[in-house]
Here is the input.
Amino acid sequence: MAANLFYFLVFPGLLFAGVTGAFLSWFDRKITARVQFRKGPPVLQPFYDFFKLLLVKETILPKYGSPVVFLLAPVFAVFGATAAGVFIMLPLFNITTGFKGDLLVIFYLLTIPSFSYIIGAIASGNPLAAVGGSREMKLILSYELTFLLVIAGVIMKCRQQIDLYTIIQTQQTGTAFIGSISGVLLFIVGIFCIQAKLAFVPFDMPEAEAEITEGIFIEYSGTAYAFIKLAKFIMLFVLPAFIICLLMKGFRLEGIGILWAVLKVLAVVLILTLIRNTNPRIKIKQAMSFFLIWMNMLAVIAIVLIYFGY
Here is the structure.
């Protein structure tokens, strides 16, 4: 019991994933600033922002809505992100437990933060939040099928194995799945799915500052918004780590492998940041067409190539 609590609350769970995600958030903001010819924030700025919201800013409850559900939604978002992170990190760090990282369990856990945001938006009673929640729901319906196809492709490449530990070991004893044509296609599709899950441009329409003024989070402030920030920090680390597990051989935490592991995570976040800074926000209809038609088509092509050994 004590070991399980340590895994969830300290390492590789809440504390470790939150701190690492905060540093990755700084990396994302720093690269964004450089792309825009700005200096960017100091390395501890995400921590300053988080603790200012947590300890200083007042939490204002909406007048028309359900305060209890409104406040619980960010807590569920942090729980879902942390649980997914633990189940991804345990096999990634080669920590042996009874759970070996069942992909379907991880897939469902990764949807909890998004659904929590929707529930919180509806509970706020704000019409702009409801618009953001509606957009988030449509976005989920678009990219989750595509993300499931990516996972199905990885399962096929690993001879129908669905536990993350075996998938990582298969690649480490052979070659990384990304080293094949089908693996490259799955990586491209997976990157865009992660972009949408993180609500990064061009898929930030649920927040859309210029249109619906933070939309889905418009009523959040203080401690409640700090929990949302924490969930986003964790997801910014967990999702790149997941794609590294699925297609990029995972981590080897010994010698030069430690540096290589860090570079893998930074490389994936760098790709996400560059996509974010080189594309305009698209409409929700365009996003749905992008995933339901083009990304699904790429994923199906990858699955067909896997069937023929490519």
